[in-house]
UniProtKB/TrEMBL annotation:
Signal peptide: none annotated. InterPro entries: P-loop_NTPase (IPR027417), Sialate-O-sulfotransferase (IPR051589). Belongs to the WSCD family. This is Sulfotransferase domain-containing protein.
Amino acid sequence: MSSNDILTPLDTKVSYREGKEDCPREVKLGETSHPVTALVTFPGADTAWIRRILEQLFGETTDDLYEITADLKSGNARRVLQMSRNIAIQTHSVRDKNFERALVVIRNPYSVEERHQVFRPDFIDWQKQYLWGDTYVSWLSSDLPLHVVVYEDLVESPLTELIKIADFLSTTDRKVNYKCAMAVAEKPPNMIYDLRQITGIYFSERKNINNNIDKVLQVAQTKFPELVDRLDSYKV
């Protein structure tokens, strides 16, 4: 394999380590426009890690809907006009009105980054306020083209998930680089799944979070049955 060879989503038997490309690769705005793609995550899902994976996979930038909106409110429309030249736009919103398709990342609502071992207080406790369930019920019910990524699958089988992501997002002018993406994907953030190590989750909180999971399960059973077992395993 030469240094100019690019792996495609169908090259599942080709070793991504054979490439001679330097990593990390240069990341820039896409040269052409593509469907505006949402990167749907929930706060605390280490979106920065997922964005770096996408950027290294395609060599194109990602952006943040909230920062784009803030710029627009201050009179700067440049980032709005460039949305279609990013590989994806990060959003925590429950609405899909700004997008043409979406990459939806679902993560166990009980898990937290290692540095966040205290369950968030009421005024910013997203799970207790039902927003985890609302976020994913809304997006999984969307009529937009969707690809759903289970965060834990991305951690456990990164190459398999990257091939699926590339298949969903690729166009003929996008060069896919699994080697550089895997260099990021193989170093996921440290997460805590053991509730005994997290302060502040009591019976009432578990009941609310489990109810949220059940709401998402109901939608998944119809539209994304492959998610059912994983979602059900989240409940404690």
